[in-house]
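Pilot study result, target chain (380 residues):
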Amino acid sequence: MHIDFKSSPGCSIGVEWELELVDRTSRGLVSAATEILSELGNGDPKASGKAKHELFECTVEVITDVCETVDEVRRDLAKTVDELGDLAEGRGLDLMCSGTHPFSHWGDQIVSPDPRYRKLLQEMQWPVRRLLIFGVHVHVGVRSSEKAIMIANALMSFLPHFLAVSASSPFWVGHDTGLASVRSKLFESLPTAGLPHQLSGWEEFEQFMDTLITSKAINSVREVWWDIRPHPDFGTVELRMCDGIPTLSELCAVTAMAQSLVEWLDRMIDRGHRLPSQRSWTVKENKWRAARHGLDAEIIVDDKGSLRKGGLAVLELVEELTPTARHLGCHDELAEIVRIVETGASYQRQRRMLLEGASFPEITDALVAEMRNDTPVTVP
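Predicted structure:
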């Protein structure tokens, strides 16, 4: 089958941010997405297109327009989130974002009315029913289909960097899982989710999608939920490995790292340089290490098994990307990654609170405050 890749002229950006609706008193999740979405923009179709349903009614996904800069992403998201916040407040609710909710149970959630999700649940049953997870997806424009495959392959070497920095799901149904990102392990239970396959080029991607669609494994390319995937309709490479990110500033930092990295790899292709690559078993091991240990993971950096501390590897990547970020106008946002490494990612902040004696509702309250104030909580 032929799949048309709608090439982007430059490294434009689009972001999808999955937000949780929580009760102001109990701090548990509340099924109110349909109500809130129906009132967004006073029913204006253009405004309502800035947010949509996700799998469960306790979730609203906020979507940007196509943006050229990270600053545009910030302003776009802030406008929609402010309006959603007002609508939530009127119902005694708050917004927050983390890879998993600290204590709410998946079995208590109502599935969204979207027929697509109803069909998905009917087909996959329990793995979908317990998929109470929240993430961030970053699209970066790519100039050709072949570049999209080459860049997607290269991005697998940096998957642990993004997962470690964004990890925000140490808890599941009121228990400490011992992981930095349990969300990433839950999502892998779906047959077309998780690590992508290394592909030789666009033709092989088309052949693979043809096999999946013909065999009725999927209905469209949209149902391939890899951690990194080319998105033909948008002309992008989509980075989907990140946990939900609690603050807008941290989200913009990760977006800056994504845009700068894709642009850096694109330029390497133009110069005839060999892109970074790792064997599939190394990629798999590194993802597990980042999910388990976050920034403290010992990441494998070569075929000899040499190791680099996750936080140090992230700082080295930021240093490498800084000139590109300056060119793109997102140097300040990229620098925020350094603060995350130095002061703690969300999973570390949440776990410190638990160790200091905070309850799970109190940790949820802190996550709400982080989003509202765009400031990570300070925990000893």
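One observation from the pilot: The radius of gyration is 20 Å. A full batch analysis is planned for the follow-on phase.
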